[in-house]
């Protein structure tokens, strides 16, 4: 089992193509490419933390929860009411939903959240803050140990947390 992180797929949102300058001609193409990118790296036994903005509407949320590989844990972002509603309707069987959470993974030396943090647990001990907010003003910064996992920054794929940290530690050496 591997642990992945991603954010801001916004399945089902036509405006995401223009808002994030995505190279897709239609909503259907975007949804399919995001699904393919996800399933190309995530296996059914993996865990994927989505740090906000998973799906735009309840129908898209339910469809993609059922078609994406891995156990999905959504930490709420700005546009996750539809996913919260679907999580409740499905009895939290197919997706875990955490409201405004900060999720710690000490074994990977990371703290995950949708919103950017000024301070986080074990920051002084060198832990990383992985955030999901898609705004370009919240960029990945090696010096501050902040990583933005918005899917647009990572070829629309979830990224394995340990590989992400290895990449940043190589850059910092």
Characterize the structure shown.
The protein has a five-stranded mixed sheet. A four-stranded mixed sheet has the order 5-6-7-8, with no helix packed on it. By secondary structure, the protein is α/β, with parallel strands linked by helices. 40% of the residues are buried. The longest helix has 15 residues. α3 packs across α4.
SSE diagram, text form:
Layout: E1 3-6, H1 15-19, H2 27-41, E2 47-50, H3 58-67, E3 71-75, H4 81-89, E4 95-98, E5 102-105, E6 110-113, E7 128-131, E8 146-148, E9 159-160, H5 161-172
Parallel strand pairs: 1-2, 2-3, 3-4, 6-7, 7-8
Antiparallel strand pairs: 1-9, 5-6
Helix pairs in contact: 3-4
The description of the largest β-sheet is: 5 strands, mixed
Q: What is the β-strand count?
A: 9
The helicity comes to 25-40%
Written as H for each helix and E for each strand, in order along the chain, the element string is EHHEHEHEEEEEEH
Q: What is the CATH T-level topology? A: Purple Acid Phosphatase, chain A, domain 2
Summary, kept brief:
The protein is an alpha/beta fold and 173 residues long. It has helices at 15-19, 27-41, 58-67, 81-89, 161-172, and strands at 3-6, 47-50, 71-75, 95-98, 102-105, 110-113, 128-131, 146-148, 159-160. It has five helices and nine strands; from the N terminus they run βααβαβαββββββα.
């Amino acid at each position: 089992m591997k642990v992945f992180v991603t954010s801001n797929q916004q399945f089902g949102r036509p405006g995401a193509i223009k808002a994030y300058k995505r190279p897709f001609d239609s909503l259907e193409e975007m949804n399919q490419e995001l699904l393919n990118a996800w399933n190309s790296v995530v296996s059914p036994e993996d865990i994927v933390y989505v740090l906000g903005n998973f799906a735009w509407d309840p129908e898209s949320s339910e469809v993609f929860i059922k078609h994406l590989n891995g156990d999905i844990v959504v930490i709420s972002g700005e546009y996750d009411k539809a996913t919260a509603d679907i999580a409740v309707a499905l009895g939290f069987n197919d997706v875990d939903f955490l409201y405004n959470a900060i999720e710690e993974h000490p074994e990977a030396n990371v703290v995950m959240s949708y919103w950017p943090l000024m301070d986080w647990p074990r920051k002084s001990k060198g832990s990383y803050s992985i955030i999901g907010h898609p705004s370009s003003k919240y960029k990945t910064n090696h010096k501050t140990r902040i990583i933005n996992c918005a899917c647009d920054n990572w070829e629309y794929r979830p990224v394995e947390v340990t590989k992400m940290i290895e990449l940043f530690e190589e850059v910092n050496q």
